[in-house]
Amino acid sequence: MSLAEFKKKILHLLREDEEFRMAVAGLIGLDAILSELRKLREDFNKFVELQEKRWEEEVKKWEEQAKRWEESNKKWEEQAKRWEENNKRWEENNKRWEENNRRWEEEAKRWEENNKRWEEAYKRFEAIERKLLEHDKRFEAIEKTLLNHTLVLEDLVKRVSRLELEVGALSEITLTRYVWDDLRGEFKLRGEEVVERVRNARVNGYEVDLLVETNKNIYIVEVKIKPTRKHVDSLLRKSKATMERYGKPVVPILAGTMIGNDVEEYAESKDVKVYKY
Question: Angle between the 30-190 and 18-28 helix axes, to the nearest 10 degrees?
Fold first, then answer.
């Protein structure tokens, strides 16, 4: 067998005969290499599995991180919107501050002008105050003179008041006399006889200027220089008290000199006779 044929035979056996191939591999040390390769493949497979697990874990971490980044992005977007709104507000506030600064500057100028005016006015007031002090001294002298005149006037007023009271009392007495004269004439015409006549009579706590009792009626007279509606009402209360005391018909009479039309109409509407003098 030639060398070429021997090589072909050897190669054929290596391809076809596994035992021969393993024997040859053992002889040349390939079995150790193959076992190492198997271990290497197993280690590589384990490494790949570990790497896959790590990748899966990393992917999960990246997914969670991505979710966090999305949430953070949303928050940053919201925060950015807030910052935009705040910026707008700050810009508006800055504009307001600028306007306020302008106003304050204008107010400061006005205050300066007002201070100048107040200084001028103060100087004028000082001059006026001096003049007033001079006038006060003059007024003190005049006041002393007026005080003396005031005392005289007060005494005069007291005398006039007393005179008014005396004149009023005298007028009422005179009017009462006139009323009595008129009533006597009326009594004769009506055939009434006078039982009693009392001036300044007291009836159940009321004071009656003139009370005349006849055999038929009681006449009560209210005498006033210038009567009012209040005097009419007072006369009606006295009339009621007199009727309760005497038990006779009562005729109320209002007498005076200055009786207004409204008072006269009011008295007549209340069945009060009016005597004008």
Answer: 90
